[in-house]
Structure formats: structure tokens, C-alpha cells
Amino acid sequence: MSKKDYKQATKLMHAGRHPEDYFGVVNPPISRVSTILYKDLAAYMDPNTKFRYGRVGNPLSANFEEALAELENGHNAVSTCSGMAAITTAMFSFLKSGDHVLITDACYPPTRFFARKQLAKMGVEVQFYEPTIGAGIAELVKDNTALIYLESPGSATMEVQDVPAIVKVAKDKDIITMMDNTWSAGVNFKPLDHGVDVVLQSGAKYIGGHSDTNFGVIVAKTPEHYKKLKSTSIDLGQCAAAEDLYLALRGLRTLEMRLKYAAENMRPVLDWFCGRDEVQEIYCPVLESHETHDLWKRDYTGSNGVFSVLFKPEYSFEQIAKFVDSLELIPVGSSWGGYESLIQPQDMKAYRDDWQKDGVFLRFQIGFEDPADLIADLEQGIENLK
User: Fold this and answer.
1) Is 180 a catalytic residue?
2) Which of 52, 55, 250, 260 is catalytic?
3) From 108, 149, 283, 300, active-site residue
């Protein structure tokens, strides 16, 4: 059987592993490396020498990048020191002064801040678009549009974008498409299979899976796009830490299982919130009431453990704070994708150009605690609102 014909679960067990290179060691060892020695001057001068300097590439980074390219069905990958570094490196690779970029209005907030501060400062015209625009994005395209940036589902409000429709417009106009695929972790959705040119992820989320890593990855669909990304990453000094790369490869082995378990664990908690009078709206594409549920059902093979809740305006921030602070199992934290449950408040009027709704907005990450215990904790906490 060809390696390409393996099911995803099988690929995740074997991707990026080469025991024969390490005396039969199952997991690629940590490579803490800066200097690399050459056998002679000819090897130093040879442009095809595989590893030249630890920051530029080493055995462990090569194994990880091979694995992520296989997971995302891409040509090759570039590892970075963080998810945000993946975003900035990817954008710098395809944008220049005078270009116009379209970015989903539901993007990860630091993406918005980077675009407004750094891209604008270098002369790039930045425009945010409604995430559910689909083929209507054609009306926003200009002669100098160089890049359309997607994030699906969107940050906090979790709109699933009509990726094929947007990609078709982009290809007709010869525009690069780029997508943040952190939500699906490369497991539940394959943007490159739907025509996207470049896909990126924050590995600190579900790939790492234990809230103890910081790294990012960019996967290119073609050799030409990979060369641009690799060149820019070298110029920017990008380098993922050896320990993070090691933990990332280890995280891949249980990635699909953890995603499924998180989705299953989330559902009872999600249903509990759906029955609460205090709630104004719930944001999660697995719910039939979510505006992009049909797109999620069409394009995605599964979910994760993240959803958001908008409370009714009559509950003040101080009341919501009493609810949050009284919880014993769900602390406040600024990430998701780990094994533990978390809450993070979202300042939607600062994060979205078009946000008009009042009420406190909380994003929940449901981890691997027993959902009955989580619901019991929420039950006692919600009493503080009354």
C-alpha cells in the first residue's frame, strides 16, 4: 500500500519519524544545535548540503516540517517560534508596499493589530471583510489586491468561511490565499485541498496539546511558495525551539484522538449553556442555530472543544466576574487546545470592526475533565449572577 493511501490516524503515527536515522530510536531525538560541521571545504561550498546552520534547519525541524506538510497535504513546511510568528512571516512573504490585503474581520486579534500597525506602516492597504461574504468578496478586490487572508472558523464568533467560493475568486484574479487553520489543527479540514495556497497554525494549541509549548508552522502548497516562505523566515531569524519541536512531534501522535475527545466532552457543556436564560447567544458551528453550521457540516469532519457565550446585557461585568471567579475547575487563561478547561473574556468591540451587540462575551475551552463535574461547577457558579 502506498504511504499516500494511509488513513489519517495511521499517518499521524508515522509522519516525521525515521528510526533508521537514529539507531532505531522511535522518536526523533532533540537536536540542540547551532554550529554544524562540514567534512571538507567542498561540502561547505555545496548549495545542496542539507543542514548548514541550526537556526536555518536541523534534523528535528526537518522531521516536524515533513510531518506537518504531510498532515496538511502540502509540499513543505516552515517552522517558526510561535503561531503569531507564522502569521507575520507568511504575510511578509507575499506582501509589499503598495499592495492591498483583504483580511477576515473575525481574525485572531493579534493578526488585526499586526496588520493595522506593521503592514500599514510599510505601505500595505489593509481592509477587513465580513467573514461570511463568500463569493461576494469579488466586489472588494482591487487591481492591487495581492492577498486574501482567511481564518475559519473565525476567532471567538467562529464563522465558517466558504473557502471554495473565496478561493475561486482569488484564482480568477491571480491572488494568493492564506488561511489560519489552527481550529481544525489540520485534522478536521484541509485548506490546501480546497485550493488555498498557504496554510498556517499555532502549534501551541491542539498540536502541542499540553499548554507548555510555543511554536508555529506554515505549509505551502507549491515549491515556489515554499521558497518564498523559507527565504523570508531565514531573513526574519525564525527558529522554533528544539524542545518545542520535540513535543510537537509527540503531540501529533495523539492529535486526532484528543480532538475527538475534546469535541465529545464539550457537547454536554454546550447543551447546558443552550438551556440557560442568562445567555443571549452561543457561538459554535456544530450548533444548528449557528449561521454557518451548514458550511461546517459540508466541509469539516469534526470539531474541537472551543465555543463562546454572549451573556444578556442585563448582567454586568461585575456579575459575570463573580460567576467566573467562583468556578473551581475552569480558570481564566489566554489560550486553548490544552488538556485543561479555560475561560477567556473577549473585548469584541476592540476585536471586530462591525460589533454592535452589548453583553459580556466569554470564550470557553473544554478540556478533558469529566463534563458532569464541569457542569456541576458551572451550576454553582451561575448562582452568583442572581
Assistant:
1) yes
2) 55
3) 108
Answer yes or no: is pLDDT of 330 > 80: yes
Question: And the C-alpha cell for 326?
Answer: 467562583
Look up the CATH number of domain 256-385: 3.90.1150.10
| CA proximity to 229, closest of 10, 349, 78 | 78
- Strand-pair category, 342-345 with 216-220: unpaired
- pLDDT of amino acid 280: 97
| Active site annotation includes 108 | yes
Handedness of CA 94, 85, 46, 65 (dihedral sign): negative
Return the CATH number of the domain spanning residue range 3-252. 3.40.640.10
Say if CB 208 and CB 247 are below 8 A apart.
yes
Q: Where are the domains of the chain?
A: 3-252, 256-385
Q: What is the mean pLDDT of the chain?
A: 95
Q: Which residue in 180, 197, 244, 299 is the catalytic one? A: 180
Catalytic residue among 17, 112, 205, 221: 205
| pLDDT tens per residue across span 242-265 | 999 999 999 999 999 999 999 999
254: which 3 cell numbers? 495523539
pLDDT of residue 285: 98
Q: Does residue 174 carry a catalytic annotation?
A: no
| Residue 52 per-residue DSSP state | S
What average pLDDT does range 363-378 have in this prediction?
98
> Does the global pTM surpass 0.85?
yes
Element (H, E) at 333: none
pLDDT value at position 1?
67
Residue by residue, DSSP assigns 69-128 as: HHHTT-SEEEEESSHHHHHHHHHHHH--TT-EEEEETTS-HHHHHHIIIIIHHTT-EEEE
**pLDDT band at residue 14 using 50, 70 and 90 as cut-offs:** confident
pLDDT for residue 180 is more than 90: yes
Residue type present at position 233: S
